[in-house]
């Protein structure tokens, strides 16, 4: 556990950095959520369309060549065989891409079916997305030494709602947020973003990675795999570090 500390010049500097980092993380999370699906889908569609276009273009050129070649001086068998091999290669690429897309979709369906068993469990994940559920949120971080550590939380718009400097011990520390902003107003449950700033052993400020804790409420398909929903917060399943039934 950690405890709050008074304000000093050093802690004020750390808090400013934590606030800036939290805003940056919030912007990055928002951009990723809004663009990753469309970008991935359009990229895949574009690649397949390009291969399909090459396939059709090659077929047109090949049949045109056969129609207009001089019967008394036909294309050499070596050249014709090479062209047929290229034709078959392009066709195989088109079919491979199509089958790979189907395989990825099937794999995600299997992952989703398995992930359903996590619903209702308390889960930890390496993430800056902090789920506020039932008016409470919790995270842990590792401090390189006993020191003052600054924590900042932003909402989905990047507005800072909670900032605090705490006294951390060397090693793993936990911090629990009661969902109240800096003015003491209780905020609604939802997805927030957190950043933690500390100091290394040589006194240099450093961003500390956070492990958030939340209750799984659902699963959904992502662009690269399956996402775990903790209320309104969405976490990539690959970022999970553990779970329990309580």
TrEMBL record:
InterPro entries: FlgD, FlgD/Vpr_Ig-like, FLgD_Tudor. Residues 134-201 form the FlgD/Vpr Ig-like domain. One of its GO terms (biological process) is bacterial-type flagellum organization. The keyword Transmembrane helix does not apply. Residues 110-240 form the FlgD Tudor-like domain. Coiled coil: none annotated. Signal peptide: none annotated. Keywords: Bacterial flagellum biogenesis, Cell projection, Cilium, Flagellum. Required for flagellar hook formation. May act as a scaffolding protein. Belongs to the FlgD family. This is Basal-body rod modification protein FlgD. It comes from Gluconobacter potus.
């Amino acid at each position: 556990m950690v405890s709050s500390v008074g304000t000093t010049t050093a802690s004020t500097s750390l808090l400013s950095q934590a606030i800036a980092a939290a805003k940056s993380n919030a912007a990055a999370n928002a951009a990723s959520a809004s663009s990753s699906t469309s970008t991935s889908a359009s990229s895949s569609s574009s690649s397949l369309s390009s291969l399909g276009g090459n396939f059709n273009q090659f077929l047109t050129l090949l049949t045109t060549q056969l129609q207009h070649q001089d019967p008394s001086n036909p294309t050499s068998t070596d050249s014709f065989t090479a062209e047929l091999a290229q034709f078959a290669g392009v066709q195989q690429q088109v079919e491979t891409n199509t089958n790979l897309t189907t395989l990825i979709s099937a794999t995600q369906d299997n992952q989703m079916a398995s992930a359903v068993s996590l619903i209702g469990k308390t889960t930890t994940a390496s993430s800056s997305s902090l789920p506020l559920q039932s008016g409470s949120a919790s995270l842990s971080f590792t401090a390189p030494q006993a020191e003052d550590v600054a924590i900042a939380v932003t909402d989905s718009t990047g507005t800072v709602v909670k900032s605090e400097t705490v006294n951390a011990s060397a090693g793993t520390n936990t911090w629990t947020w009661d969902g109240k902003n800096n003015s003491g107003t209780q905020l609604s449950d939802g997805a927030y973003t957190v950043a933690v700033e500390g100091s290394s052993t040589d006194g240099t400020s450093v961003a500390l990675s956070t492990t958030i804790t939340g209750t799984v409420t659902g699963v959904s398909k992502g662009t690269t795999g399956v996402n775990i929903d903790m209320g309104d917060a969405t976490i990539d399943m690959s970022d999970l570090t553990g779970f329990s039934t309580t």
